[in-house]
Amino acid sequence: MTIFAYIKAKIRIKSMDAPIVTRNLEICSYEVDPNSLLKPVALQNLLQEIGYEGSEFCKCGYELLRSRNLFWALNRIHFRIPETPRWGDKIVLQTWSRGQAGPLWHRNFRMVRPDQPEKPLVLATSAWTVVDLSQRTLFRGDLGFDESYHYGMDTLPFCTKITVPRDLEQSNAGSHAVVWSDLDSNGHANNCVYTQWAIDLMPYEYVRNHRVSDVEINYFHEIRPGSTVDFLLARSENRWYVTGKVGDTVCFIERIEFD
Fold first, then answer.
1. What's the whole-number mean pLDDT along residues 154-180?
2. Which residue among 95, 104, 188, 200 has the highest number of C-beta atoms inside a 10 angstrom radius?
């Protein structure tokens, strides 16, 4: 069985009139932090993986787009964590396509416990574009979506543009040279590692004693191998802003809130 046949076999649709892709998972030891809580970067990995399964269900999966020299590029993501899963927790992760608005395709996510479906652990929404792999330009052609693939239920409002409040001072917070382990199959820094970079900039004792409750990221430019990312950090109480730049180009802005 190929990996893509395996992924298809794991997809389960909740009902015929609700095209929701569902995975039953258990939080593993390598996905948690020293407090045994699911790391934000591990959460993003889970969302990204089931997002690929969702696009496969919509007949626009990774392999099909690659055959057309296209790929899905994450433009924005917002996830809220009312309760962080812990090591060993059994959870249900769901995703569905919310449809298209302008050049953006919206995808929603929800994570719950099997016995408490009415009590979300995580709610998330994301916005994606399709990029021409050879030209690195936005693809505006027909992807062949059918309206029956979309489900009109929202978890959070559609992602918006992040701006750092003007009254906050942004300080230089170091830099990171992009290495092999940062890269994904598209040959650029995986969007999930941005959150790992951001949290690693913050004081150890602060992160140890505060729980991440809300994260929002805007992606502007891909970050290529060999690049050095310079970070700017700003804070307003338990809300932090991280800006990542390569040279004079802003590549991403991330807002992270803690309890």
1. 97
2. 95
Rounded mean pLDDT, 50-74: 88
Residues 49, 126, single domain; the answer is yes
| Whole-number Å distance between alpha carbons of 96 and 149 | 8
- Range of the structural domain that residue 137 is part of: 3-149
What is d(CA 129, CA 136) in angstroms, rounded to the nearest whole number? 11
pTM of the model: 0.89
Asked whether the beta carbons of 149 and 58 are under 8 A apart, the reply is yes
- For tokens 């300080």, the residue is 171
Positions of E strands within 61-170: 70-80, 90-101, 104-112, 122-132, 137-138
Q: Helix axis angle, 40-57 relative to 193-200, nearest 10°?
A: 170
Please answer whether residues 176 and 197 qualify as being in contact, where contact means their C-beta atoms are separated by less than 8 angstroms.
Answer: yes
- Per-residue model confidence as pLDDT tens digits over 182-204: 999 888 999 999 999 999 999 99
Task: Check whether residue 141 and residue 245 sit in a common domain.
Answer: no
Residues 216 and 141 in one domain: no
